[in-house]
Design brief:
By secondary structure, the protein is an all-alpha fold. The chain contains 7 helices and no strands. It has helices spanning about 5-40, 45-60, 65-70, 80-95, 105-130, 140-160, 170-185. The termini are far apart. The mean pLDDT is about 90.
């Protein structure tokens, strides 16, 4: 076994456990939000429902759950399109759940939207690369996918736990909205 095959084997093994750890993180995020939101009557439960939606979406394709139930779909290249569809479906459910909740009040909503859109875009690109074009050679897109999907998942976890705008994306979005609304008023 050469060093390249060894690295790929290590990445696949660690990837399986990292995916399960992230899925477990979304379960813990859901439970945390359930306890913290349920303890106060009339407190908005948007983050709890968003956490539950993401957890259930990730649970459906968790590698260890699939191994336990002997589900073979994760072994095929088509898993990328399944992940893409699940992320977009989850995004639709989240937008429906949080339609009355502002990004200013819940910055975690913006981070989840960005995370799911980024992940689904990468899943679709990998689906095209592997399933449609038949590429089997590792290249920079695969490394970008590996790093970015995990960073997005960890960012969504952090955002759902803290509901903080730690990258100031919600503030930047508010700035853009304000700037363009003022510019429109001046042009009118």
């Amino acid at each position: 076994m050469n060093i390249s095959n060894l690295i790929i084997t290590i990445q696949q093994t660690l990837g399986t456990y990292l995916a399960t750890l992230i899925m477990w993180g979304f379960l813990m995020t859901f439970l945390f939000n359930m306890v913290s939101r349920s303890s106060i009557v009339n407190k908005d439960k948007t983050l709890m429902w968003i956490s539950l939606a993401i957890f259930l979406s990730y649970l459906l394709t968790d590698p260890l759950v699939s191994m336990a139930f002997e589900i073979e779909s994760l072994r095929y290249a088509s898993i990328f399109i399944i992940w893409c569809i699940l992320d977009l479906t989850c995004l639709g459910i989240i937008l429906l759940i949080s339609r009355n909740s502002s990004i200013e009040k819940f910055p975690a909503k913006l981070y989840v939207i960005i995370g799911l859109l980024t992940n689904s875009s990468l899943f679709f690109c990998l689906y095209l690369d592997v399933s449609v074009y038949g590429n089997e050679e590792r290249w920079w897109l695969w490394d970008l996918y590996t790093v970015t999907v995990n960073v997005m998942d960890l960012t969504m976890l952090g955002a759902l736990l803290t509901n903080k705008d730690f990258f100031k994306l919600a503030a930047f979005l508010k700035f853009l909205k304000t700037k363009y609304s003022i510019q429109r008023e001046l042009n009118a």
